[in-house]
Amino acid sequence: MADPKTKDPVLVVVQLSGGNDYLNTIIPYNNGLYQDYRPNIGIPQEDVIPIDDDLGFNPNLAPLKEKFWDTGKMALVHGVGFEGCNRSHFRSMDVWHTAEPDKMGTEGWLGRAIREIDPQAENVLTGVSFGPGLPRAMALPGVPVASVMELERYGVLTGITPQQERDQALEIFARMYGPTVGTGYVMDYLSQTGSDILKGADVLKTAPAKYSSTIEYSNSPIGQSLRGAAQVHLADMGARVIYTEVGNFDTHANELAMHEPLWQDLSASLVDFYDDLREHNASDNVVMLLFTEFGRRCRDNGTGTDHGTGGGAIVIGDPVKGGFYSEYPSIEEEKLLDGDLQFNYDFRGLYSTVLESWMGLDAKPCVGGTFEKLDFI
Amino acid sequence: MSEKDIALMAHLMRRAGFGASREELERRVANGYEATVEELLNPEQQPPWEEDLARRHHIGARYGNGLPETQGWWLQRMVSTKRPLEEKMTLFWHSILCTGNAKVDHPQTVQVQIEMLRRHCLGNYRELLGDLSRDPAMIIYLDNRDNHKGAINENWGRELLELFTMGVGNYTEDDVKEASRAFTGWTHKPFPPLYPFQRYFLEFEYKPDDHDDGEKTFLGQRGRFNGDDILDIVVRQPATARFIARHLYNFFVADEPHVPAWPHTPPRDGAAVNILADAYLQSGYDMRSVMRALFNSDFFKDESVHYAKVKSPVEVVVGTLRLVEDYITPKPGIDALVTQAGYMGQMILNPPSVEGWHAGKEWINSGSLSSRVNFVAERVGDTTMPGVQNIINRLATESRMSAPDFVDGCLELVGPLTIGEQARAALIAHVEQGGPLSRDTEEQRSDFARRTGRVLQLIAATREYQFA
Fold it and tell me: Tens-of-pLDDT digits for all 468 residues of chain B?
């Protein structure tokens, strides 16, 4: 857990959308079966960056290995998943977002975490999401989340001048979005969102002005999202849960050609993010979780892989104890589940570890039970 | 002509199109509701889109490159069409049977798919599925070109069953594999050389040598099925009828929970979904018949579903442009407005995934709400716009000079829209604070216009305005 006397712990979540192929990310390169399964998209043994005699990194993750693995700040969590994965992107992503594999959930696990951190919703910037939509993981009635495309554009009625008239307009806006009784769920949600914008906008907009850095991020959406995340973190606004998304990892075809730019850009952006935080002496209270909705089929289908079940997750950060966690699923034919890696570790344990060991929260209300934790923090 | 008739017509035009001005609503009410429905259902009887005029400003939309220009081309058509349901239905299909340029990487190929969807938009669903299975953009997007005899790629087979026809829970993993086998050999012709002409249009190709002609078991039936046999089987499933019916209800009537919740959550109006599903099966999958049943039904007309949908970003952008009467005649600049819809969370021709967009309440978050309010406020506050001037003139003609009358007039002319008492009181107080309204002098008239623009901006900022 982060030292409460100094800085509050911060969690940055990066969603790898589409189902990242763990088998081609952390590769069992000395296992003959791997090449047998993947005659077309197997990474040649000599290109894999070895970790030990069994596993190695996809070469596109080289910057991550150098920056985080070699310095002991990267945990690779193998075989993560949940019982009853039906190989649908949408259902699987929902399960990961709501931590509800057994029934249809509507509350996001991070929404619940934000409520634990800030039960009175005193700071509308406790949760910040970068990208065009609000992830379901953060959605929870009564929990404000600032959803940002561009920091500079955040705020309503920005076009009204002079300032005196805008102030007047914002006052009316505040009245119009004031709490009302019995107008319905979506109306209430709108009220809350509108009020949160008013509270958050003036603070959030100051972040870019306060920011200066030598790091030049990639112009890709994830590069820019992580730059925004760094700006918000460095501006010290009390943001504790920051969310971003990158994709598309749905590599049914041309997996090699798709993985290369995706992972190269993501790796570079993650390194930039940490360099940026370190440059400002602000990396020690940040942990980053990378997850995806499922892994992919063991055998390739030609140039790609179809939807599978068990996947893997990555946790990065100064406070992280690097290494392998959980067990790499066997790729022996008879150990596969309908041709997929068998998951062996419930993703809610991963969430619990991050929430309890790092954020210092009670995980139970956030993930709906008690699950085996890992000791990467 | 009662305010109730106007409200119903406005509801129809918001759902079957992108909204209509007060003048258009009055004209349509005079024609009658059912006559209007028939007019909407028979777009070919309306003047075609003046493509030549738009082409001048979108020279590259069909043969050049660049996603924004291709997106702008469609947005322009939505704004200036005289066949609103044709575009709305096309958008409906694009939201479900979606293909994203991020993967296809050739906007024109996606546009050809949109044209295909438009051709079938009110036609037979079996025929649409047939052309969709042969559509090069879809063949790339869901990887059917990599679906080979002896080495299936399940992407198309799975999404056909999960997202385009029956929905989760109505088929097995084996059905996915067998459907995929049936579509082996369905691909597109090789890419012509990139130079000197850049990428060019692709054509469907069936390769018998690459087709797995063996026996298959699909949904309990056995046969040496080819792709068309699979489509024949899925299109007639009651599950497909209910799935499409629920999508229609969700898009045209009232927001439903998101699609993955459907197997677990009953529809908001099960009887309505049954009516639509029956219309689908009884008409032999004829979408015109289904939509006729929908628009003429009591469940559609019921006041409880007016404004029961959160507007999609495209509805926000197109509806606003139509309201203020900007871009009704094609002109340059509309490509940039596509980006505005993107800030609100919806980039046409580029949905975030094959799931399409998360709609309904999920259109709203603090960032998208900022973008929505600011986009609309900027346009309705521009009193030089013809649509805004019409509103000003109408308020003047009806001498809506007291503050409550003035505010109510504005609400009628942008909707009619009913807002909460608290919001209405805030607007009235704002108008009162600005002093009495008058139009006797030139200065007063310009002040009247300016204040109309401001009230319209504040209405655009209301919670209620976010609904369609």
Answer: 799 999 999 999 999 999 999 999 999 999 999 999 999 999 999 999 988 888 888 777 666 567 888 899 999 999 999 999 999 999 999 999 999 988 888 888 999 999 999 999 999 999 999 999 999 999 999 999 999 999 999 999 999 999 999 999 999 999 999 999 999 999 999 876 656 656 667 899 999 999 999 999 999 999 999 999 999 999 999 999 999 999 999 999 999 998 988 998 999 999 999 999 999 999 999 999 999 999 999 999 999 999 999 999 999 999 999 999 999 999 888 988 998 898 899 999 999 888 899 999 999 998 899 999 999 999 999 999 999 999 999 999 999 999 999 999 999 999 899 999 999 999 999 999 999 999 999 999 999 999 999 999 999 999 999 999
Cα separation of B37 and B13, whole Å? 10
> Does B364 contact A189 at a Cβ distance shorter than 8 Å?
yes
In 10 A of CB B56, how many CB atoms?
Answer: 10
Contact criterion met (CB < 8 Å) for A147 and B151: no
Q: What CA–CA distances, in Å, run from B108 to B201, B334, B429?
A: 7, 18, 52
Q: Compute the count of residue pairs across chains A and B with CB atoms less than 8 Å apart.
A: 181
Predicted-complex ipTM score? 0.89
A94 within some domain: yes
Amino acid making up residue B432: E
Give the domain range for residue A48: 10-154+205-367
Residue A72 in domain: yes
User: How far away is chain A from the Cα of B40, in angstroms, using its nearest Cα?
Assistant: 30
* Chain A nearest-CA residue for B142: A252
- Residue A124 is which amino acid? V
Chain A residues with CB under 8 Å of B151 CB are: 301-302
Secondary structure class of B11 (helix, strand, coil): helix
* Domain harbouring A257, CATH code: 3.40.720
A17/B353 touch (CB, cutoff 8 Å), yes or no: yes
Contact indicator for A151, A204 with CB cutoff of 8 Å: yes
By CA distance, what is B152's nearest residue in A? A301
Assess if residue A169 is contained within a domain.
Answer: no
A90 interaction partners in chain B (CB closer than 8 Å) = 259-260, 355
Min distance B75 CA to chain A CA atoms (Å): 20
The answer to whether residues A253 and A304 touch, using CB atoms and an 8 Å cutoff, is: yes
Whether A168 is covered by a domain: the verdict is no
Instruction: Tell me how far CA of residue B385 lies from CA of A84, A127, A139, B152, in angstroms.
Output: 56, 40, 38, 56
- List the single residue in A155, A180, A193 with the smallest CB-CB distance to B364: A193
Q: What's the rounded Cα separation, in Å, for the pair B93 and B86?
A: 11
Burial A275-308 (b: 16+ CB within 10 A, else e): bbbeeeebbebbbbbbbbbbbbbbbbbbbbbbbb
The continuous run of DSSP H or E covering B337 comes out as helix B334-343
Across the interface, whether the CB atoms of B422 and A175 are under 8 A apart is answered: yes
User: Per the structure, how many domains does chain A have?
Assistant: 1
Q: What is the DSSP letter of A307?
A: B
User: Helix, strand or coil for residue A215?
Assistant: coil
Minimal Cβ distance to A306: which of B155, B354, B378: B155
Nearest Cβ partner for B146 among A104, A186, A301 = A301
Per-domain boundaries in chain B: 124-254+256-306, 386-466
- Counting other chains too, the contacts that A156-164 makes at CB distance below 8 Å and 24 or more residues apart are A156/A194, A156/A197, A156/A198, A156/A201, A156/B369, A156/B370, A156/B373, A156/B374, A156/B461, A157/B373, A157/B374, A157/B377, A157/B457, A157/B461, A158/B370, A158/B374, A159/B374, A159/B377, A159/B378, A159/B381, A160/B377, A160/B381, A160/B457
What's at A16, amino acid-wise?
L
| Closest residue on chain B to A40 (Cα) | B151
